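Researcher: For the record, we're logging two predictions in this thread. I'll number them. Prediction 1 follows.
Model: Prediction 1, sequence and structure:
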Amino acid sequence: MNSISFVEKQFTKTPVDFKEQFGAYNGATFGLRPTLKQSNYYRPHNKFDYADHLYFCGSSTHPGAGVPIVMQSAKLAVEELIKDDQTNA
């Protein structure tokens, strides 16, 4: 039995599709390249160093990719926001 016979609809996505449909930089589906200088602590931090009140979360920011890790990234960004809000109050 050929499993392909069960496929009802098939489509292909290219980097061009990701760039046009999702605004992904250069059509990158997974964000930053997984090099040592773009891994773990070296990813963009959750609080921007050069502007006030600008925070980031997601798979291309610290700590990294994967749904549980992206949720941790969101938590870190919110913690930075709350800390700044309390400092500026």
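Researcher: Logged. Prediction 2.
Model: Prediction 2, sequence and structure:
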Amino acid sequence: MDIYKEETIRRHVSLSKEALKQMEDAFRRLNEGGVSQPPVIHVNIPEHNGEADIKTAYIPGFDTFAIKVSAGFFDNPKKGLPSLGGLMLAMDSETGIPRALLQDNGYLTDVRTALAGAIAADQLAVKDISSVGVIGTGLQARLQVEALQLVRSFHEVHVYGRTPENVKKYQQEMEEKYGLSVRLAESAEEVVRGNDLVVTTTPAQEPLIKADWLHDGLHITAMGSDAEQKQELDPEVFSKADVVVGDVTSQVFSIGELQHAKTIVNEDDVTELGQMLSDDASGRANDQQVTVADLTGTGVQDTAIANYALEQIND
């Protein structure tokens, strides 16, 4: 079995148009059927403000399927450690023999998560934007902006975070790395009201966005809720949305934002990302609609990014 460290993986895998196409194909394959994807196994570790998820999926025709363990321990920065981590085990699809251990420390999960956000925005956000609103200042708050540059042209980021020093650090890093103007918001409301494309990237357990703040032409990609205790959106947000999209319908109703909106939205009202990519469902119909994407992360994404990584490393 081959073992690849994070340094090697980073040299070969980045947020690119090629990787974006691979992720789009994975969502299409999920929609077409034949994919075997069990529910997420979630382990909550409250005494250490931590959690771990196990995800996997088999995609017909792929050489390997991935079994991914991802962990989030949100007090780690106080200890000088990253809050997110994990690894992927690539199993041979024909024999079940382990083919490779990808010791990526969560890097591949970070990449595929950012790519999913870009796909959702490409399908649902208005075409003409000048700025992106971001709630949160962590790693995904950075990677989402980088990935969005693959599908939209913009020159400004409007960010809100609870910790002033983290917001200032975010501003400095994003301006230096991407040449973007980063404007600091005093509230989440300011971000939502002032932008047509907003991404939420926090582990919040109480709503950050209220329905009263929504406006014509707004798209929200909610990335943070992937467990029962998490929530970034007021459930009434969904009552004002014209289009609601999820990565996997059953999953967003169990661990995503929609778990809190079951009395407002039915499963039949939710379009899956793969349906739009396969032209089996429409997304935004005009520039006045309000759209929301609830993305929880899927095993099919992990298998797709693991296969892509192995292809790039061994090319």
